[in-house]
Write a structure and sequence with these properties.
- Helices cover 93% and strands 0% of the residues.
- 2% of the residues are buried.
- The longest helix has 110 residues.
- By secondary structure, it is mainly alpha-helical.
- It has a domain of 99 residues.
- It is built from 6 helices and no strands.
- Helix 2 runs antiparallel to helix 3, helix 4 packs antiparallel against helix 5 and helix 4 packs across helix 6.
Length: 334
């Protein structure tokens, strides 16, 4: 009985474990199924959004194509209208040019300035529709013929002018030679006259220079005397100037030496005053200490040492004899 109870308990525990595992798997499967459902819904939503976006893009492309087609048709219509207007204007201009050309040709025919061939074409065209190109072609041929005839006449005239120019030069050659010889003779005469005048001016200048030389030679003695006087006076002035400069330099040196000596004395006196002041302070400190020690004594003695120190400081600051002794000492040192 006990063994059967143990087996039943084990089976019950195993069943409980299986049930718990099944419950856990059920929850996991439920979560997985829910996640799969959400993913499918998300994919479906994304597919629907993509389809809508594709439809919108397709609609936009269709509208864009329709607009492009409309603009293209409008542009083609405008181009056709412009082409028709251009053809119309060109036709009108050609007709106007044809009428003007016909009027000009008729006027030239009346004046007799049109060639026989062009006149025959114009006469044969009466009562007929004459082609503009035919008229232009015949007019150009007529104009070319007239130009060739004009060039031929100009060549003939140029040849005649060349002959006349050659004859004129042959006739003018002796005259030109005679004129050149006369011009050369005149220029030679002018050159010889200018040379003669230059020689005269040169001679006059030389004579004037010689006269000036003689006059200057007469004044050489006076020049030497005057030069000696000027040199002597300038030498005296220079010596006087040099003496004055030397005196000024000596005065400046003495003044500078005195200033340096005075500065040295002042520095020495200042140093003395400082040393005396330090010594007086030391003496006063010693006297104060001594007085402190003798406080209990009845007789009070004056501090003659402090008075003498102050007198020494006063004498160092104001004594003239001390300053003179220091000045003499500095003079000896220098």
């Amino acid at each position: 009985m006990e063994r059967a109870g143990a087996v039943s308990a084990a089976q019950a525990a195993k069943k409980a474990e299986i049930v718990a595992l099944a419950l856990e798997n059920t929850e996991a499967l439920h979560s997985l199924a829910h996640a799969r459902k959400l993913m499918i819904e998300k994919r479906k939503e994304d597919a629907e959004n993509a389809l809508l976006e594709a439809e919108r893009e397709s609609q936009r492309l269709r509208e864009q194509q329709e607009q492009d087609a409309a603009r293209l048709a409008e542009r083609r219509a405008k181009e056709d209208a412009l082409r028709r207007e251009k053809d119309r204007i060109e036709a009108e201009l050609q007709e106007q040019e044809k009428q003007e050309l016909m009027a000009m040709m008729e006027a030239r025919m009346k004046s007799g300035k049109v060639g026989s061939k062009l006149a025959a074409v114009m006469k044969g065209a009466e009562g007929k529709e004459l082609d503009r190109d035919t008229i232009l072609r015949e007019a150009q041929a007529e104009r070319l013929k007239e130009q060739q005839e004009l060039e031929r006449k100009m060549t003939k005239v140029a040849r005649q002018l060349d002959h006349l120019e050659r004859a004129r030069r042959e006739e003018e050659a002796p005259v030109l030679a005679r004129l050149a010889a006369e011009r050369e003779a005149e220029e030679r005469a002018l050159y010889e006259e200018s040379v003669r005048q230059e020689a005269v001016r040169h001679r006059a200048g030389w004579e004037q220079d010689m006269a000036d030389r003689v006059r200057i030679l007469k004044t050489l003695d006076d020049k030497a005397v005057f030069e000696a006087q000027v040199i002597a006076r300038r030498r005296e002035e220079f010596e006087e100037y040099r003496r004055q400069q030397l005196a000024k330099q000596a005065q400046r040196r003495a003044q500078r030496r005195a200033e340096i000596t005075s500065q040295r004395i002042e520095r020495f006196l200042e140093q003395c005053r400082k040393e005396v002041a330090v010594r007086v302070a030391d003496i006063e400190a010693e006297e104060a200490a001594r007085l402190k020690e003798e406080k209990k004594k009845v007789v009070k003695r004056p501090s003659h040492i402090s008075a003498s120190a102050k007198k020494l400081c006063h004498g160092c600051k104001y004594s003239k004899s001390g300053v003179l002794q220091l000045r003499a000492l500095f003079d000896e040192v220098e």
